[in-house]
Write a sequence for this structure.
C-alpha cells in the first residue's frame, strides 16, 4: 500500500507541476482558437491557389489567341502578382499556425497522459469506480485527438517492390500501376524531405551541445595565473563541470517522433532492399523509454537510408519501362 | 587528504584497457597566443604576452548501454618570453555511465595538478574529484537527478590550504516542450578546512593552524533552451554555516551560457558567472584570520569564444576572458582580462 501512496504522490506532484505551468483549459481554448484560425488561413490559401491557377489558364489562353489582347494580359498578370503576394502571406501565416498548433498538441498530449496515468494509478491502488473509468475514456479520447501525426507510408513497400511493369501486357493495367508507383515515389519524397529536415535539426542540436560542452570544459580548465574555477569543479557534481548536466550527459528524447520514426523504419524493413549493417536495431517495446539524441540521430539516419533506397528502386521501376 | 589518485594510473589504464582500439581514441591539440592583463597586489599585477599550448587524449568506449572514457590533458602556459612565468596544468579523468531501463547511473574520477612558477611566485595546487550520479526517468522526459561525491583541494603557496568537501545535490528536471527544459532542487555540502599559515610574529617565523568545518546548503534552479541556439541559466542560493560565521550568512551564484552555430562553419559562445556573498563574522577569528571557505575561488567572470571550423580537423578561434576574484573577506580583489587567438587540431 505504501508503494501506491508513493506512486500517487509522485504522479500528483507531476500533475501539479504540469498543470500549473499552463492551465489545461487555457491550453485547450488556445488550441481551439488556433485550429479555427488555421482552417481559415488554409481555406484562404486554397481559394487563392485556385484563383491563381484560373488566371494562369486565362493568360495562357489569351496568349495562344492569334491576336492576343496585351492590355488584358497585363491586367491579368498584375492581378496575379497581387494574388501571389496574398497567397505567400497566407501560406506563411498557415505554416506558423501549424507550428504553434503542433507545439500545443504536444503539451496537451503530455498533460492528458499525466492525467490518464494518475487515474490509472488510482485504479491500481483499489479506488476503482465507474467515474474514474469514464474519466479515463474521456481523456483518452481527448488525447487521441491531439496525438501527433505518424509519418507512415500509405502503401505496403513489399507489395510495391514486387510490381514489375515489364511483365504487364495490358496498357491500361500498365498505366494504372505506373500511376501507383508514381504516387508511391511522391510519398517517399515527401517523407524523405521531412526526415531530412528532422535529421538536420537534431544534427544541429547534437553539434551545438557538443561544442557547448567543450567550450565549458575549456573555461573550467582555464585558470590563468591563480586558481579560480575550483568551486564549480569541486563544489558541484561531475557534469556540473560543464554546467550542462541539466541537459543530460546526452540530451534525451522520447517524444512521439521517435516512436513514429521507429514504426516507419519497421514498415520499411522489407528485407528486399540491400542494406549494409544497420546500426539501429531496437524493438518497439523498448521505445517506451527515452533515448538520447545520438541514438535518435542514428534512427533518423537509418530511416533516411531506407527511404533513399526505396526511392531509387521506385524511380528505376518507373524509368525502365 | 582522505583519498588520493595519480594521473599515471590513468595512463596505465589507457594502455591496458581491454577494448582499446585506435578509432576510439580522440586527440586534440590547441595553440593560443595573445595578451593578458591583471590588476592586484604585488605579484598578481601582470601585463604580459601569453602563449599557451593545450593537448588532450581521450579514449572512449561506447556500446548500447555503457559509456566509458579516460582522458589525459596537459596545458603549459608562458607569460612573456624573457624572465617568464610558467604554469603547467595536468588533468586526468575517468568517466563511466550505464544505461538501465528508465535509469542512468555513472561514476567519475578526476585529478588535476597545477603548478605556477616564476618571478618569486610559487604556487601549486591539486584538485581531486570522485563522484557518482544517477538520473531516473519517471514520466516521459521528467526525471530526478542525484549527484553525490567527494572533492579535495590542496593549495601550497608558502602556506598550505586544504579543503575536503562532501556534496550531494538532487534536481527534478522537467521538459516544458521539446526544446525547453527546467529543473529545481537542493544542494547540500559539508566542508572541512585545514590551513597552515606561515606568519611573522614578533620578528619570528611561526605557523598558525586554522581549522573550520561547516555546511553550505540551499535551493538551485536551472533553465535550458536548446535548438539552433543554446541558452542555459543556473542559480544557487546557499546558506553558509561555520563557527566563524553567524546566521544569516549566504551566497548567490548565477551562471549564464549562450551559444549558436551560424553560417555553417562559425560558432559563438558566451559564459558569465556571477558570485556574491554576505558573511556575518562570528568573532571567533584566530589571530584576526577567519578560515573562510575556499578563499581563491570566488570569482565573477565572462568568457567569449568565436570560432571558425576550417576543416573537420582544424579550427581557428578568438577568445576573450574577464575575471574578478574577491579574496579574503572581500578585502583583496584581483581583476584581469585576456584576448587570445588560437588554432585547434582535432582527430576525434
Amino acid at each position: 500500500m505504501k508503494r501506491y501512496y508513493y506512486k500517487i504522490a509522485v504522479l500528483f506532484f507531476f500533475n501539479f507541476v504540469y498543470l500549473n505551468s499552463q492551465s489545461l483549459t487555457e491550453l485547450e481554448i488556445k488550441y481551439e482558437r488556433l485550429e479555427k484560425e488555421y482552417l481559415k488561413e488554409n481555406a484562404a490559401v486554397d481559394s487563392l491557389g485556385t484563383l491563381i491557377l484560373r488566371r494562369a489558364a486565362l493568360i495562357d489562353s489569351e496568349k495562344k489567341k492569334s491576336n492576343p489582347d496585351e492590355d488584358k494580359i497585363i491586367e491579368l498578370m498584375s492581378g496575379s502578382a497581387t494574388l501571389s503576394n496574398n497567397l505567400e502571406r497566407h501560406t506563411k501565416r498557415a505554416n506558423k499556425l501549424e507550428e504553434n498548433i503542433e507545439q500545443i498538441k504536444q503539451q496537451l498530449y503530455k498533460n492528458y497522459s499525466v492525467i490518464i496515468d494518475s487515474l490509472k494509478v488510482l485504479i491500481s491502488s483499489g479506488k476503482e469506480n465507474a467515474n474514474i473509468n469514464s474519466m479515463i475514456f474521456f481523456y483518452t479520447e481527448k488525447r487521441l485527438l491531439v496525438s501527433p501525426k505518424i509519418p507512415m507510408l500509405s502503401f505496403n513497400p513489399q507489395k510495391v517492390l514486387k510490381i514489375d511493369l515489364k511483365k504487364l501486357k495490358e496498357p491500361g493495367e500498365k498505366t494504372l500501376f505506373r500511376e501507383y508507383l508514381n504516387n508511391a515515389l511522391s510519398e517517399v519524397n515527401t517523407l524523405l524531405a521531412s526526415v531530412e529536415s528532422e535529421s538536420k535539426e537534431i544534427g544541429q542540436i547534437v553539434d551545438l551541445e557538443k561544442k557547448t560542452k567543450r567550450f565549458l570544459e575549456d573555461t573550467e580548465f582555464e585558470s590563468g595565473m591563480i586558481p579560480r574555477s575550483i568551486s564549480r569543479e569541486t563544489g558541484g557534481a561531475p557534469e556540473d563541470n560543464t554546467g550542462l548536466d541539466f541537459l543530460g550527459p546526452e540530451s534525451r528524447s522520447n517524444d512521439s517522433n521517435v516512436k513514429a520514426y521507429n514504426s516507419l523504419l519497421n514498415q520499411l524493413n522489407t528485407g528486399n532492399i540491400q542494406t549494409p549493417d544497420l546500426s539501429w536495431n531496437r524493438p518497439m517495446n523498448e521505445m517506451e523509454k527515452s533515448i538520447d539524441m545520438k541514438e535518435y540521430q542514428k534512427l533518423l539516419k537509418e530511416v533516411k537510408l531506407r527511404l533513399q533506397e526505396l526511392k531509387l528502386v521506385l524511380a528505376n521501376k518507373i524509368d525502365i519501362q | 587528504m582522505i583519498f588520493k589518485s595519480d594521473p599515471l594510473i590513468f595512463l596505465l589504464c589507457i594502455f591496458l584497457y581491454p577494448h582499446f582500439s585506435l578509432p576510439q581514441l580522440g586527440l586534440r591539440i590547441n595553440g593560443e597566443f595573445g595578451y593578458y592583463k591583471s590588476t592586484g597586489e604585488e605579484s598578481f599585477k601582470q601585463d604580459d604576452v601569453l602563449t599557451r599550448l593545450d593537448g588532450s587524449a581521450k579514449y572512449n568506449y561506447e556500446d548500447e548501454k555503457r559509456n566509458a572514457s579516460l582522458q589525459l590533458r596537459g596545458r603549459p602556459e608562458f607569460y612573456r618570453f624573457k624572465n617568464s612565468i610558467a604554469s603547467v596544468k595536468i588533468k586526468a579523468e575517468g568517466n563511466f555511465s550505464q544505461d538501465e531501463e528508465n535509469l542512468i547511473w555513472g561514476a567519475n574520477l578526476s585529478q588535476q595538478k597545477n603548478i605556477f612558477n616564476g618571478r618569486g611566485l610559487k604556487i601549486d595546487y591539486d584538485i581531486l574529484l570522485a563522484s557518482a550520479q544517477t538520473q531516473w526517468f519517471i514520466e516521459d522526459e521528467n526525471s530526478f537527478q542525484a549527484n553525490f561525491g567527494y572533492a579535495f583541494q590542496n593549495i601550497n603557496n608558502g602556506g598550505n590550504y586544504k579543503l575536503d568537501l562532501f556534496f550531494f545535490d538532487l534536481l527534478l528536471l522537467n521538459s516544458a516542450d521539446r526544446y525547453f527544459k527546467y529543473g529545481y532542487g537542493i544542494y547540500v555540502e559539508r566542508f572541512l578546512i585545514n590551513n597552515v599559515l606561515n606568519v611573522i610574529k614578533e620578528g619570528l617565523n611561526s605557523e598558525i593552524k586554522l581549522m573550520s568545518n561547516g555546511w553550505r546548503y540551499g535551493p538551485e534552479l536551472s533553465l535550458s533552451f536548446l535548438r539552433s541556439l543554446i541558452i542555459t541559466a543556473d542559480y544557487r542560493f546557499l546558506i553558509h554555516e561555520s563557527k566563524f560565521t553567524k546566521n544569516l550568512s549566504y551566497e548567490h551564484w548565477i551562471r549564464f551560457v549562450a551559444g549558436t552555430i551560424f553560417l555553417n562553419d562559425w560558432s559563438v559562445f558566451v559564459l558569465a558567472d556571477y558570485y556574491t556573498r554576505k558573511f556575518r563574522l562570528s568573532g571567533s577569528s584566530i589571530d584576526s584570520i577567519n578560515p573562510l571557505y575556499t578563499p581563491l575561488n570566488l570569482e565573477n567572470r565572462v568568457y567569449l569564444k568565436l570560432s571558425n571550423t576550417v576543416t573537420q580537423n582544424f579550427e581557428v578561434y578568438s577568445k576573450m576572458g574577464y575575471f574578478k576574484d574577491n579574496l579574503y573577506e572581500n578585502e583583496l580583489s584581483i581583476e584581469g582580462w585576456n584576448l587570445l587567438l588560437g588554432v585547434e587540431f582535432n582527430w576525434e
About this structure: Chain B has one helix and 16 strands. Chain B touches chain A through 95 residues (CB under 8 Å). Residues 160 and 238 of chain B are 26 Å apart (CA to CA).
